[in-house]
Each structure stands twice: as structure tokens, then as C-alpha cells.
């Protein structure tokens, strides 16, 4: 299991760097496109708008990949804890403190997995929208109805609000 975690950490770091880079490149390209669109800067805004969409889509793809790697790690940890719990139950008929600790860790892992799944859904909805807004000929670009784009955007926004809403457990 340690080699698997090492591979995941080795995979997560480049994904995090690329995602951060794409996010940072998105903003200047989007700002230049806006300045050109408003005639503050001369020139065509279309190339910078497309570049902004591309950076956004690549950042979202990186976030989706990170979620999948984390889900695999969390599932492996949950399996390991379930094996430990089964071994602990087999060795003693009573509920041990170790078994209680394992149960608490499993609850934490389940919460982390749920959060990761929500993030995956949020980023997936945004990614579908990012591709949809690209010029025709790129995957499913320009093929979704505007209502579908709106619904996907609302789903992503609601997930973000839900995840960031203060919970009673944090107080």
C-alpha cells in the first residue's frame, strides 16, 4: 500500500502544479479578452477568450483527475480499515477501543469521500460547460442548449454553496 500512496502523491503533485498554473494563466487571458471586447485595448478578443476557455477546461480536467486519484486513495484506506476492523472483531467478541477508533476513522473517510464526490460533480459540470462554450468542432462545443448550460452551472454553484456552507459540526 505504501508504494501505491507514493505513486498517488507523485501523481497528485504534478496535477496540483499544472492545475494551479492553468488557473493562473486563465485570469490574464480572460482580462485581456475583456479589455479588447470593451475596446480598452485594440485587437480581436476572440483568441484570448478561446485561450481563457482552454485554460479553464484544462484546470478543471486537472481537478477532476485529482478527485479520482483521491477517491482511489480513500477507497484503499477504507478497505484497509475494514480489514482491520474484521480482524479485531474476530480476535475479541467485545467491542474494543481499537474497533471504536477504526469505526470513527471509517466515518471520517466516508465524509471525505462524499466531499470528493461532490467536488468531482462540481468540476464535471463546469468542464461540460467550458467545452460547450468553445468554438464548434471541439468535442460537444456549441451543441448543448443554453438551458442545459444554465442547469449545469446552477448544479455546480449549488454544490459549491453546499460544500462551503457552515455546518453545525464545525462550531
Automatic annotation (TrEMBL):
As for subcellular location, the record says: Peroxisome membrane
Q: Where are the membrane-spanning stretches?
A: 48-69
Task: Please give the chief subcellular localization of this protein.
Answer: membrane
Query: Domain of life, per the record?
Result: Eukaryota
Q: Which UniProt keywords apply?
A: Membrane, Peroxisome, Transmembrane, Transmembrane helix
Classification via InterPro entries: PEX11 (IPR008733), PEX11C_met (IPR026510)
User: Which is one Gene Ontology cellular component term of this protein?
Assistant: peroxisomal membrane
Instruction: State any GO BP term from the record.
Output: peroxisome fission
Can you say what this protein is called?
Answer: Peroxisomal membrane protein 11C
Amino acid at each position: 500500500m505504501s508504494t501505491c500512496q507514493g505513486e498517488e502523491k507523485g501523481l497528485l503533485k504534478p496535477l496540483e502544479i499544472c492545475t494551479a498554473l492553468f488557473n493562473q494563466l486563465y485570469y490574464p487571458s480572460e482580462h485581456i479578452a475583456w479589455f479588447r471586447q470593451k475596446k480598452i485595448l485594440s485587437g480581436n478578443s476572440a483568441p484570448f477568450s478561446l485561450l481563457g476557455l482552454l485554460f479553464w477546461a484544462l484546470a478543471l480536467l486537472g481537478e477532476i483527475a485529482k478527485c479520482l486519484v483521491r477517491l482511489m486513495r480513500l477507497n484503499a484506506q477504507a478497505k484497509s480499515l475494514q480489514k482491520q476492523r474484521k480482524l479485531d472483531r474476530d480476535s475479541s467478541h467485545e467491542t474494543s477501543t481499537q474497533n471504536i477508533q477504526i469505526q470513527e476513522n471509517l466515518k471520517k473517510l466516508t465524509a471525505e469521500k462524499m466531499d470528493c464526490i461532490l467536488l468531482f460533480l462540481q468540476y464535471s459540470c463546469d468542464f461540460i460547460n467550458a467545452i460547450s462554450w468553445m468554438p464548434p468542432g471541439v468535442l460537444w462545443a456549441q451543441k448543448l442548449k443554453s438551458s442545459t448550460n444554465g442547469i449545469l452551472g446552477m448544479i455546480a454553484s449549488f454544490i459549491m454553496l453546499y460544500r462551503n456552507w457552515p455546518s453545525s459540526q464545525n462550531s
